[in-house]
Amino acid sequence: MDFYTIVRPEHLNHYHYLFGGVMLRWVDEYAYVAAIREFPTARFVTRAMDQVSFTQSVKNGAMLRFQVKREKLGKTSVCYRVVVFARDLQAKEEYHVFETAVTLVSLAPDGKKTPLPSLLPEL
Amino acid sequence: MDFYTIVRPEHLNHYHYLFGGVMLRWVDEYAYVAAIREFPTARFVTRAMDQVSFTQSVKNGAMLRFQVKREKLGKTSVCYRVVVFARDLQAKEEYHVFETAVTLVSLAPDGKKTPLPSLLPEL
Amino acid sequence: MDFYTIVRPEHLNHYHYLFGGVMLRWVDEYAYVAAIREFPTARFVTRAMDQVSFTQSVKNGAMLRFQVKREKLGKTSVCYRVVVFARDLQAKEEYHVFETAVTLVSLAPDGKKTPLPSLLPEL
Amino acid sequence: MDFYTIVRPEHLNHYHYLFGGVMLRWVDEYAYVAAIREFPTARFVTRAMDQVSFTQSVKNGAMLRFQVKREKLGKTSVCYRVVVFARDLQAKEEYHVFETAVTLVSLAPDGKKTPLPSLLPEL
Amino acid sequence: MDFYTIVRPEHLNHYHYLFGGVMLRWVDEYAYVAAIREFPTARFVTRAMDQVSFTQSVKNGAMLRFQVKREKLGKTSVCYRVVVFARDLQAKEEYHVFETAVTLVSLAPDGKKTPLPSLLPEL
Amino acid sequence: MDFYTIVRPEHLNHYHYLFGGVMLRWVDEYAYVAAIREFPTARFVTRAMDQVSFTQSVKNGAMLRFQVKREKLGKTSVCYRVVVFARDLQAKEEYHVFETAVTLVSLAPDGKKTPLPSLLPEL
After folding, report:
1. pTM of the model
2. Which of B34, C1, F75, F7 is nearest to D3 (CA)?
3. Residues with Cβ < 8 Å from B54, sequence gap 6 or more?
4. Which residues on B lie below 8 Å from C27 (Cβ)?
5. Distance (Å, rounded) from C-alpha B52 to C-alpha F39?
6. Are strands D52-53 and B63-73 parallel, antiparallel or unpaired?
7. How large a percentage of chain C has pLDDT more than 70?
């Protein structure tokens, strides 16, 4: 599953590059969307995020692609690898800027871990 | 091309449903992303949006899917139909909530209309 | 009824002009304010927005004037024409940048259409 | 000159009343808009705000009216009284919630005080 | 008690200096945090803010320090002096940019003033 | 060095708990502030963040304390441990909610790593 966003002035740090904290917020959001698309009736919270490296500064106007793939499927949790690519304004090539894995856990209404529902077949 | 987002408290109007203006902002953004994915070297601005109807209130926690399809391809502009579906929290079914068409025009650096580059083949 | 706002960096797209989606959000908001000023006891939601054209890029620092006029008055709905003018920073003249019509419908607490209350006389 | 806004969930503090800091931000913004409407070619910055009292909590969905009146006109500065009234959702009566005075000073491009241009006659 | 923040593009006015309204929002927030650190079980609202002067423009990338000191302790209210210093990007020296006093009042759940709890000793 | 913030409605996910992505954004910001306080003349970017676990949901109105301690000091980079504690509204006790380590690297204007300046003695 791929997700896309555009870097605008409101997302920049004071050096006029993408603020790392905004990247982390998007990664968390898109991992959640991936999980809820595969398990629509589950109630998920983010449990963990792997170590991350910021190796490339991202510029205003870049299009980001968040490639999200299921990596591990547990009884009560699911882990997605999120790889982020950027394509600069008016450029053709995209390049790798960020990568991590996000684990989400399925909770019952009382806040305790509960088994995941079955995977939605069509995704 | 499909795009996804989650409705959170910051997106709600004072009745605690999705604020229509936020929906319009997302529609504009995803039509732009669709265009830039197909024509990466173009410089686009939104030129027009068709009449819109809001027929369904959208709740906090709903997942929105923005289905974006190219509808018309002109010499200097391109038009995308954007159809939005919502899936309520922990529900399986999605339902139609919104539909419009967005026209983007390709501009030269001097701000004048300029022919679109050729379509990126792989999309 | 006129409404005003200033375009600041947080409202810009990556070309450093006003992001069209932000304009649409303001138009939706000011049409609602106009309706609630005329019908304070009603419970309104946006039902429709006419086709829109973006014919002028708006710069950082511009003052926007949203001129909102009641255009049609139905039994359960009301329509406002919204015309937007911009005045550039330190300039004297304003120019037309955007125009549409927004229809709002009066809802009962159960979400069904309900007749509008009588118009507040003093507005 | 009157300005209007609607209190939405994104403006609330954790008690679900209007966050005072958001009120102050709006007061600052509307005083600036009033000044720039009267002196379009000036370059203004806020210089001072009078002591303020928050005497009423404002609820989600309230419509705020910012009544802005010129109070003092100096050679290089101008002061506006800002009185804020709220009208609760579906209520007819508005009530006083806030009052202050904001002084703006006219600056030259080098950042030094400079005489105000003449007042725009039609406002 | 000292609080810190960084000025980023989203905080700027259209002249690319810190928007005064954002400064006021931070001052209100940090005075509240100071109060809640000293009186954790109280329920506070901002009651008043002293006259303020903006004497220095603050640039993108500056680090702000909000120095907050208890100034007056009443039976149902407490007043903090907030002095704000800025340090420009890659500069060593900080300079005074803003100063005010914020009064918070302790409320009971019914919204009436109620005596402050005893001061948390360790702060 | 300790940093504080209050969780408000705009920071919540659709379950009305703190959105994990907002926590990550704050952690990134406060690690940066810690670094810039110790090395004011450096130009820092975030290079890495350790694996993180979200073990506790954080409620609206909670006060967060970000305890930031320098953990490693390299020639061109510095690493801070960030431990986050929450204190619920009107509660006296705080509890541990989050922990990670953030590495920042010192860059020259050309974007290459450059040795850190000497540590500011008074911090």
Report:
1. 0.87
2. C1
3. B20, B23, B97, B98, C45, C46, C47, C48
4. 21
5. 53
6. unpaired
7. 98
**pLDDT 10s digits, F81-91:** 999 999 999 99
Tell me how far apart the alpha carbons of residues C75 and E57 are, in angstroms, rounded to a whole number.
Answer: 53
Alpha-carbon span A50 to A38, nearest angstrom: 21
Residue the block writes with tokens 């005893």: E118
In one letter, which amino acid is C42?
A
pLDDT for the residue B122 = 57
Neighbors of chain C by Cβ distance (3+ pairs < 8 Å): A, B, D, E
Which of F4, F8, F18, F89 would you mutate first to test chain D, the one with the most D CBs within 10 A?
Answer: F8
Distance, CA of B83 to chain centre = 8
- B89 lies within 8 A of chain F by CB: yes
Position A89, amino acid: L
CB B80 within 8 A of CB C86: no
3-state helix, strand, coil in chain D (%, to 5): 20, 45, 40
Mutate: best of D14, D18, D25, partner F, most F CBs <10 A: D14
Q: What is the pLDDT of residues E32-76, one digit of tens each?
A: 999 999 999 999 999 999 999 998 899 999 999 999 999 999 999
Give a three-class secondary structure readout of B42-88.
Answer: CCEEEEEECCEECCCCCECCCEEEEEEEEEEECCCEEEEEEEEEEEC
Consecutive H or E run containing E32: helix E20-38
| Model confidence pLDDT, tens digit, residues D55-105 | 889 999 999 999 999 999 999 999 999 999 999 999 999 999 999 999 999
**CB of F117 less than 8 A from some CB of E:** no
Note the pLDDT tens digit of each residue in F64-123.
Answer: 999 999 999 999 999 999 999 999 999 999 999 999 999 999 999 888 999 999 887 655
- pLDDT, residue E122, reads 58
The shares of helix, strand and coil residues in chain E, as percent rounded to the nearest 5, are 20, 45, 40
Asked if F10 is an interface residue toward chain B (Cβ–Cβ < 8 A), one would say yes
Of E28, E46, E52, the CB nearest to D48: E52
